Amino acid sequence: MIYYLPSCNFTAAHKDDSMKIRSWMSDHGVTVAGCCRPTQNLLKEGDLVLHNCTSCSLITYEASPQADQMSIYEYLLNEESFPWPDYHGEEITVQDCWRARNNMNEMKAVRECLKRMNMVPVELADNYEKTTFDGPFLYQKVSSGNLKIAPKTYGAIEKIVTPLPKEEIAEKMKEWVKQYTTQRTAVYCNACLRGIEMTDAEGVHLLSLMLGNL
């Protein structure tokens, strides 16, 4: 069975977009799940899990090693019926996520999705596995729910997290975005987008860009 994890955070921040992709997935034979944590109890060997969220991905890797998974970006690149929008050659900065740094297939798919929409990806010096950016994630306490369901993964992250006041986090975000050279920056991580939104830079979630024709 193919499951789609819609991401609680993506849904909360982009309710209309979340409903659009849920409906499209359901119409095309994909089972739309709920929160990634209880969904782990449903997964069996041979199931395929689609995600648009770095936390959902990391939790699934640890909690359900019997299932296969891929990002929604990889999946939709191979769906002929998906209605890709056209952004007419817009240059857009690509912001990679630190928690996705080991998922090269997803990072490559992100660029291919942008190209499929007639966008020109602009790379940062610290891109792909070199990125150290994760919005405010590395400056806030790790979620107890994530620690409980994926203790190995999030226990290791907890050791390097340095909680900071919101004001200091915002300053770090403002310093980071100084390197952006395009009007908009594409992200595929909810925390990364929240970080950019703490600044004057304009961030946009890749999935939202992809849903322009739905």
TL;DR?
The chain has 214 residues and is α/β, with parallel strands linked by helices. The protein has helices at residues 8-13, 15-27, 36-39, 54-63, 72-77, 104-116, 144-149, 151-158, 166-176, 190-196, 206-210, and strands spanning 2-5, 31-32, 48-51, 68-71, 90-95, 119-122, 184-187, 202-205.
Structure characterization notes:
The protein has 214 residues and is α/β, with parallel strands linked by helices. The chain contains eleven helices and eight strands. The strands form two sheets. The protein has a four-stranded parallel β-sheet with strand order 2-1-3-4, sandwiched between helices. Strands 6-5-7-8 form a four-stranded parallel β-sheet. The longest helix has 13 residues, at 15-27. The radius of gyration is 17 Å and the shape is globular. 39% of the residues are buried.
Write the layout of secondary structure elements.
Blueprint: E1 2-5, H1 8-13, H2 15-27, E2 31-32, H3 36-39, E3 48-51, H4 54-63, E4 68-71, H5 72-77, E5 90-95, H6 104-116, E6 119-122, H7 144-149, H8 151-158, H9 166-176, E7 184-187, H10 190-196, E8 202-205, H11 206-210
Parallel strand pairs: 1-2, 1-3, 3-4, 5-6, 5-7, 7-8
The chain-level structural class is alpha/beta
N- to C-terminal separation? 24 Å
Form type: globular
pLDDT average, as an integer? 97
Largest sheet: 4 strands, parallel
Unreliable stretches (pLDDT < 50, length at least 5) are: none
What oligomeric assembly is this protein in? single chain
What's the tally of helices?
11
> What portion of residues is helical?
40-55%
Q: Kindly estimate the percentage of residues that lie in beta strands according to DSSP.
A: 5-15%
What radius of gyration results from the CA coordinates? 17 Å
**Number of distinct beta strands:** 8
Spatial strand order of the main sheet:
2-1-3-4
Order of helices and strands: EHHEHEHEHEHEHHHEHEH
